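Hi L.,

You mentioned the student needs an example of a multi-chain input paired with its predicted structure. This one should do, with 620 residues in total across all chains.
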Amino acid sequence: MSDIKLEKLDDNRWLLPQTGEMRVPGIIYANEKIYQLLKGDESARQVANVAHLPGIMNFSLAMPDVHWGYGFPIGGVAAFDLDSGIISPGGVGYDINCGCRLMITDLTLGEIKTRLDDLTVALYQHIPSGVGSTGSVKLSGKDQKKVLEEGAAWAIKAGFGLQEDLETTEDGGAMVGADPEQISARALERGKQQLGTLGSGNHFLEIEVVQEIFDEAAARAFGLRKGQIAVMIHTGSRGLGYQICDDYLALMVKHANETGIVLPDRQLACAYLNSGRGKNYLAAMACGANYAWANRQILMHRTREVFEKTLRMSPRDVNMKLVYDVCHNIAKIEEFNIGGTIKKLCVHRKGATRAFPAGHEAVPERYRNVGQPVLIPGDMGTGSYVLVGQEKAMSETFGSACHGAGRVMSRSQAIKTSRGRSIARELAQKGVLVMAGSKGTLSEEMPEAYKNVQEVVQVMHDSGIARKVAKLKSIACIKG
Amino acid sequence: MSNYKFFDHTADIGVEIAGRTKKQLFVNAATALFDVMIEHKTGRTTAKQRKQVTVEGADVADLLINFLRELLYLFNGEKFVMDRCEIINFNNTEIAVQLTGEKFNNTKQLIKTEIKAVTYSGLTVERQKNHWKARVIFDV
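Structure written out for the whole complex:
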């Protein structure tokens, strides 16, 4: 952790004091165990670097899944004033609107146990995954423009899903202000090929079973019950998003001198929110976000088809419903109470999930009495958690919580550690069937490469940011 | 390959590249990028494609990143797998290269790792006693 000293605030928070050119202090959410892990990487330095950016409000924050990223730490949250603040493509990340989507069914483990192999194989065959995978949806230029403007709604109009799916998608599956004119020909070209694909790396599609309920009332509202089969999808905007980020980052680095902003790391290159370049990036980013929502919507539709066909069941019997869809790489204009005044801010969530409490108007109507579902996938062998946003998130973390377990091992360390072992067999022994495009991916993504998701989630629960609702166990996983 | 080595980075791939000269550093960085992404199943390339690429940068570090970004796009956007890189023209703010390679063919090559982007994070390009050294982080 180099020369940075953290001060313990309480059992779950550490203060990173304001020093040098930092404009605000930092706060890292971590218990003692996670704090010890922080010492091994540069993520605290990155929290401090983010605190140098103009217009940053209150604190530069990191959630308990924090780890060393590029520019911003992964698990980083920072909010900026609309007049004096900035927008940073690196603070959103290359995979714009990378996120999670959780679906539930009316099925139980007992009902699909004998068909789980077939189901997993069929999912693997029908959900294009792997490096550079190309999709089954071929887009004309005109259609692509609509995808970028309309997001998940385009997918539904094109026959990939139900109108009701939009009700439980963050922002209704479309970010306003998307302008395809702000996107390069290169980004458009990459986007044409990849709609309806999972991709590679840490992206996945998992069949899970609800293992434990912590909060009956919230679980009931979300439609979750013990023993139920669910599906979690984790993917984003694919090559289109990477290219948008790359293009704007290069542009902002090129013009960095014009803004007069001194950057501790070029990857933090940014533009003022009220500048032309800043506004153009926001319009381009919204296109990436909408593409990702359409992508997850199409993958959900394919999953429904595979379940119905493989199990020879009607849509009504499978009854695959969307619990929620969250983005965890994004910048959003949202309102917060800052010293008694309601202010619009631009919240960067780089590997962090929105976690709005009960009563917030952005929470879907059917969940408004309990709060927004927060989806936290863990490693392949563990499964996922569903949490619900709490009031304290609004006052402390700009309505944000963690987004996953967070890596603790580098990819090369993981490959080294897994040498001579069969990760697929180990997972099978734990009751998780895995199909992956490459053995390398399985090694890189081995369970030990991640923090214990239980610890991470507990920090959010104990600090009152997001409350535990349910735990889901993986039973099958497909990866690129 | 001794022209580059990996350094540990929690989420991404860090590469430390060495070159006897600044030009050689750029050629070795290009090789490292493709080595991370591609595994050749059978020998080297046969069907040759040639490409001329010119890239600009604000300084030598920015130039290196822009150069690698351009090569990454050639792969992601045009499926071009580089085999050789020859420098035609070079100064600290502009590089022109002649690339030789072929179109990606999954019977001959395997994609090992998807690189999402070449990042500016923690970027260094430095002159050592008798060689040049750069550190670059690829987002994977």
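You could point out the following to them. The radius of gyration of chain B is 14 Å. The domain at 4-139 of chain B is CATH 3.55.10.10 (Archease, Possible Chaperone; Chain: A; domain 1).

Best wishes,
N.
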